[in-house]
Design brief:
- With 383 residues, the chain is an alpha+beta fold.
- It folds into 2 domains: 217 residues, Porin (Beta Barrel); 154 residues, OmpA-like domain (60s Ribosomal Protein L30, Chain: A).
- Helices cover 26% and strands 35% of the residues.
- It contains 6 helices and 12 strands.
- Strands 1-2-3-4-5-6-7-8 form an 8-stranded antiparallel β-barrel.
- The longest helix has 35 residues.
- It is rod-shaped.
- The relative contact order is 0.11.
Length: 383
């Protein structure tokens, strides 16, 4: 039995390892709504049964013996609460064996068992979330109840296993599910045990399952990347520094011209001369994928500084909206970039900039900045 389990586990890891992607981008994800990341599964199962009463019968332990194994079915529904942690409710059974001897026909029985299981996606936990990963390695553990319909008995049990999911598309995955269950002696309909009666694994009814089937992801099956706050903050700070430097240069030039006029005692100059030509660094406002709502209100701090420059110097601001060309069609990205530009225009109006002093441009989808999330933005410049 132990050797068989080890062979199955090694075969699973070996085959799946060849299909696994080599590089995975690690990043944090945003929490989805309760109705996202649900899935359903359906499998064909091969099960080998080990009864508590066979301890002293000296029967072959091979799970391939016909008096010990049978085919069955399983269905499950579950949800991922994070990329690495989920819950699954699973029901399997129909055709079983009560191993009282080596006669397959005499051992036949019918049963079902229901388990609640906790899933741990170690691929996402250890390697980082990747929606395009080919193989996900998912150990699980759970508990539940079983009923032997042929003998009208119930039993509690524990189960642990390994779910291997091979990605076919964003909606479908191929399952290879290996599990081992330990149950009360009534699981197979025969509640008595043989031997000295001391508690041991052999005093329990057990089952070994190998299942193959499909997973179907319901609704939204992926997770959105959280914007890199540190990178965005650094970008904003560099823009602020550039803007402050330009303002300082403009103020110094203003003071120089005023001092020049004062020294020459120009009678026509009754007021300080103000330089109207101001070069200001563009300000970027970032958005989450597919959204036209500002990702971080901190972006508006930089927007306010640029709005003040435009008002003080009677300048026109140009708001250019962009979208990520790797996501969505060209028409969709054109519309999304327009909405993003309009969102920023509304914020500028709130900051006191007149609407006739704001121009809006929809640039559509682009891919000119790395990482790709930086392309989901609107850029404000002084005209």
């Amino acid at each position: 039995m132990k050797k068989f389990l080890m062979v199955l586990a090694l075969a699973s890891v070996s085959v799946a390892g060849m299909a696994q992607d080599e590089l995975t981008e690690k990043y944090s994800v945003a929490t989805n709504s309760f109705w996202s990341n649900w899935f359903v599964q359906a499998n064909v199962a091969g099960t080998a049964f080990y009864s508590s009463q066979e301890r002293d019968l000296d029967l072959s332990k091979s799970p391939l013996k016909d008096f010990r194994n049978n085919l069955g079915l399983s269905v499950a529904i579950g949800k991922w609460f994070t990329p690495g942690l989920g819950l699954r409710t699973k029901v399997n059974g129909i055709w079983g064996r009560t191993v009282d001897g080596d006669n397959a026909k005499d051992n036949a029985s019918k049963y079902w068992q229901a388990n609640e299981q906790v899933l741990f996606n170690l691929s996402n936990m250890l390697c980082g979330y990747n929606p395009d990963r080919v193989w996900n390695f998912i150990p699980y553990a759970g508990a539940g109840i079983a009923r032997n319909m042929s003998y009208n008995t119930y039993a509690m049990g524990l189960q642990a296993g390994l779910l291997n999911e091979f990605r076919l598309s964003r909606k479908f995955a191929l399952n290879l599910d290996l599990s081992y269950g330990i149950h009360e002696p009534d699981f197979d309909g025969n509640g008595f045990t043989t031997g000295n009666g001391k508690p041991s694994i052999k005093s329990k009814d057990r089952d070994l399952n190998v299942e193959i089937g499909l997973t179907y992801n319901l609704g939204k099956a992926t997770w959105n990347k959280v914007p890199d706050v540190d990178a965005i903050r650094a970008l904003h700070q560099s823009q602020i520094d550039a803007l402050n430097a330009q303002l300082n240069d403009a103020n110094a030039e203003n003071a120089r011209l005023n001092n020049l006029i004062k020294n020459h005692k120009c009678p026509e100059a009754t007021a300080p001369v103000t330089v109207k030509e101001v070069a200001a660094a563009p300000v970027s406002v970032f958005f989450n994928i597919g959204k036209a709502k500002v990702a971080s209100k901190k972006d508006l701090v930089n927007l306010k500084a640029l709005a003040e420059v435009a008002k003080d110097n009677d300048k026109t601001l140009v708001v250019t909206g962009y979208a990520d060309s790797k996501t969505g069609s060209a028409n969709y990205n054109k519309s999304l970039s327009q909405k993003r530009a309009e969102t920023v225009k509304k914020e500028l109006v709130k900051l006191g900039v007149a609407e006739n002093k704001i121009e809006v441009v929809a640039a559509g989808g682009v891919n000119d900045i790395t990482p790709v999330s930086y392309n989901r933005r609107a850029v404000v410049t002084v005209k």
